[in-house]
From TrEMBL, chain A:
GO biological process: transmembrane transport
InterPro entries: ABC_transporter_permease, MetI-like, MetI-like_sf
Family: Belongs to the binding-protein-dependent transport system permease family.
Transmembrane parts of this sequence: 12-32, 72-94, 106-124, 150-172, 193-218, 253-275
Cross-referenced Pfam families: BPD_transp_1
Keyword annotations of the record: Cell membrane, Membrane, Sugar transport, Transmembrane, Transmembrane helix, Transport
PANTHER family: ABC TRANSPORTER PERMEASE PROTEIN, INNER MEMBRANE ABC TRANSPORTER PERMEASE PROTEIN YCJO
Name of the protein in question: Multiple sugar transport system permease protein
Protein localization: Cell membrane
UniProtKB/TrEMBL annotation, chain B:
Alphabetized UniProt keyword annotations: Signal, Transport
Superkingdom assignment: Bacteria
Protein name (database record): ABC-type glycerol-3-phosphate transport system substrate-binding protein
Mitochondrion listed as a keyword: no
GO BP, one annotated term: transmembrane transport
PANTHER family, sorted: ARABINOSE-BINDING PROTEIN-RELATED, BLR3389 PROTEIN
Annotated family: Belongs to the bacterial solute-binding protein 1 family.
Length: 281, 415
């Protein structure tokens, strides 16, 4: 027996606004960017078709190597630090009295935007900043690579820790209690309880949190732009910063679009591989 | 089928709604928008808007940006959309040529001719605004680059404004020994300042050849300039290039004794309630090469432009004409404490009056600022390169080769 569609005969009409919005605001600009990546375009004269020239140049550009290295640091860093520490804070604060209050200080920085984060931390980490003053050191944190990327990653961790903690706490609250009780009766506690019972139960959620961190790491832009603008001498540039800089600072829209296409392919491929592994696993 | 038709109709309506109205008739405007990348100058622009309303019954509202990349992207995009500025600030040199070639900028030849005749604009400023024999835009400002210094700091350590390079270095040594950082430099945007200054003071002809693609960044003369620059940095004369403190604050607090900047830096002094001749002074930076016949002074002029297809072209042109007049320039110069492009206008600051007068009388060799003299793609590579160099002075060769690569690419199609 055929059941009637939930939205009735006009279901196409119902989804049309959403389809149009997505097509107009997401797919059309993407296709336009993909086209621009095959052109030489300065934003003024009409784009001139140059085939794959932007891509051959891109793979020959030393800046690509630097930005790929920095992006990799960001990806690995965001998958390990904010996620790992978030899980730690969640587990440590989960079943203690007043745990929610313990988590509040970790949550507050999440309210800051990437640019706001840069504004707050730049004066602290600059050469004549508070960090050097308090530590009695004379380090140019924001200038040498890869120290500047690592310093920004720590700032990013400071901000992201809270939300990851929150996600893990929700995960801890939603896992079934029975297996934990059973394991406790069998004598499991502390690390062995976490390692063999809680962690496997948390796995679906961890997959999501790590997946989000993976994509966030790949597209890192605002915090870098606010703190170093990718410098000095492009040594803290990420792929997203390279894309912005080539497009809007150097006004090479075609070349910048080529970076955008590469970044999209990399982010899409990484997410697909990761999710496929997680889902199948 | 019906669904498809509905989708098609909706798409058509959406496209129609987004479409342009190219055939729009010129409007009659009583208020003009002035888009600029000088967000910090908003109150001065506001003052000009109020004055123009009074004097020519045309008011002006500034729309200020602080990020120049974002600003330039907006202006370029506006050429293709309906959100167009009535007036906008830009840069002379390659960037002006670029938008003139696209027929986006209104021709101001008539305004220039009239202003030169009336003595409101000097003839020798016209070449900076000339593309293909015609003038475009009018001067928003002019600036001569020199050294701003903290007067009480100089006095405290018995340092006098130097007249030779040797004296400048001696002054730097004295200040450094007393725990004051002599000079300011930065790795972001204005990273070119000391390169340009040393080039102009060592070999200005080479500088000119470099900016027209007739010399290479890897030439021995350019390497010598970089070596000189490295020598100064390695001697510990500069602040850390990555510091984000505003140079005006460094100068005001006396952490840095000298800041090399254009005369527009006076506006930053004014906003910090610093008085010329008391809190700070200004001197022309002496040449490194003493055999040069004239002291080189870096010069720049920023344009105020109108679009060729402005909403009300007559009003925009009327405003530009008014902008060059002594009545407008008195206010523009005095409110900011800066020099004016109009020779009839003098400012309170004696040091600035004298450099304007001396520059006008041919005492100096005026050298076009690096920002305007260098084509945009080469400039972009150079700013990054110098940013890298000031953070790590061992990168000279790598930096010059990278800039030259961008230059080779550019000049291969632009000679």
């Amino acid at each position: 027996m055929r059941t009637a569609p939930i939205l009735g005969r006009f279901r196409g009409g119902y989804v049309a606004p959403a389809v149009l919005l997505v097509a107009g605001l997401l797919y059309a600009p993407f296709l336009w960017t993909a086209y621009l990546s095959l052109t030489a375009y300065d934003g003024l004269a009409d784009p001139e078709f140059v085939g794959l020239r932007n891509f051959t140049r891109l793979f020959d550009d030393p800046a690509l190597l630097t930005s790929t290295r920095n992006t990799l640091i960001w990806v690995v860093g965001t998958m390990v630090l904010p996620v790992g520490l978030g899980l730690l804070v969640a587990v440590l604060s989960y079943d203690i009295k007043g745990g929610a209050w313990f988590r509040v200080p970790f949550m507050l920085p999440y309210a800051l935007s990437g640019a706001g984060l840069g504004m707050v931390w730049s004066p602290i980490l600059s050469h004549d900043g508070i960090a050097n003053l308090l530590l009695g050191t004379d380090t140019a944190y924001m200038q040498e690579a890869p120290h500047n990327t690592i310093a920004m990653l720590l700032v990013w961790t400071w901000q992201q820790l809270g939300v990851n903690t929150l996600l893990f706490v929700v995960g801890l609250q939603s896992i079934p209690k029975a297996p934990i009780e059973a394991a406790r009766l069998d004598g499991a506690s502390g690390w062995s309880l976490f390692r063999h019972v809680i962690w496997p139960l948390m796995r679906p959620l961890t997959a999501v949190v790590v997946g989000l961190a993976l994509v966030a790491g790949l597209k890192t832009f605002d915090i870098v732009w606010a703190m170093t603008q990718g410098g000095p001498g492009r040594n803290s540039e990420t792929l997203a910063v390279m894309m912005y800089r080539e497009t809007f600072v150097a006004t090479k829209y075609g070349y910048g679009s080529a970076v955008a296409v590469l970044l999209t392919v990399v982010a899409g491929l990484a997410s697909w591989l990761y999710l496929r592994r997680q889902v199948n696993g | 089928m019906r669904t498809l038709a509905a989708l098609g109709l909706a798409a058509t309506l959406t496209l129609a709604a987004c479409g342009g109205n190219d055939a729009a008739a010129p409007q009659k405007k009583s208020e003009l928008s002035l888009y600029n990348d000088k967000g910090a100058w908003s109150k001065y622009f506001d003052g000009m808007g109020a004055l123009s309303k009074q004097q020519i019954s045309l008011s002006m509202k500034p729309v200020g940006y602080t990020d120049s990349a974002q600003y330039q992207a907006f202006i370029k995009a506006s050429f293709r959309t309906d959100v167009k500025p009535d007036l906008f600030t830009w840069q002379t040199g390659g960037m002006l040529e670029e938008i003139v070639k696209q027929k986006q900028v209104a021709d101001t030849t008539a305004v220039w001719q009239e202003a030169i005749k009336a003595g409101d604009l000097p003839q020798d400023l016209a070449p900076y605004y000339t593309v293909g024999g015609k003038q475009y835009c009018v001067p928003l400002n002019v600036a001569y680059w020199g050294m701003f210094y903290n007067m009480p700091v100089f006095e405290k350590h018995g340092v006098k404004p130097p007249t030779t390079w040797e004296e400048l270095i001696k002054a730097a040594d004295t200040l450094k020994k007393a725990g004051v950082t002599p000079f300011y430099h930065t790795s972001v945007l204005f990273s070119f300042v000391w390169f340009e200054q040393l080039m102009a003071g060592m070999d200005p002809d080479l500088y000119d050849r470099l900016s027209t693609g007739k010399a290479k960044y890897t030439d021995p003369g350019v390497v010598a300039v970089m070596d000189k620059w490295k020598e100064l940095i390695d001697a510990g004369y500069f602040v850390n290039a990555g510091d984000k403190t505003d140079p005006a604050d460094l100068l005001k607090t006396g952490k840095t004794a000298m800041v090399s900047f254009g005369t527009f830096f006076n506006t930053s002094m004014t906003t910090r309630s610093m008085a010329p001749g008391k809190d700070y002074g200004f001197f022309v930076i002496p040449n490194v090469n003493t055999s040069l016949p004239k002291t080189s002074v870096i010069f720049e002029s920023g344009p105020l432009c109108a679009l060729d297809k402005a909403a009300d072209p007559a009003a925009s042109m009327k405003y530009l004409k008014w902008w060059t007049s002594a009545g407008a320039q008195e206010k523009w110069a005095s409110s900011r404490g800066d020099v004016s492009a109009n020779p009839k206008v003098t400012v309170k600051d004696e040091a600035l009056n004298s450099i304007t007068k001396d520059a006008g009388s041919g005492k100096y060799r005026l050298v076009n600022r690096y920002f305007e003299a260098t084509p945009p793609p080469i400039l972009s590579a150079a700013l990054d390169g110098f940013g890298k160099f000031v953070s790590d002075t061992s990168t000279t060769k790598e930096v010059l080769e990278t800039i030259q690569k961008a230059a080779d690419e550019y000049w291969s199609t632009h000679q």
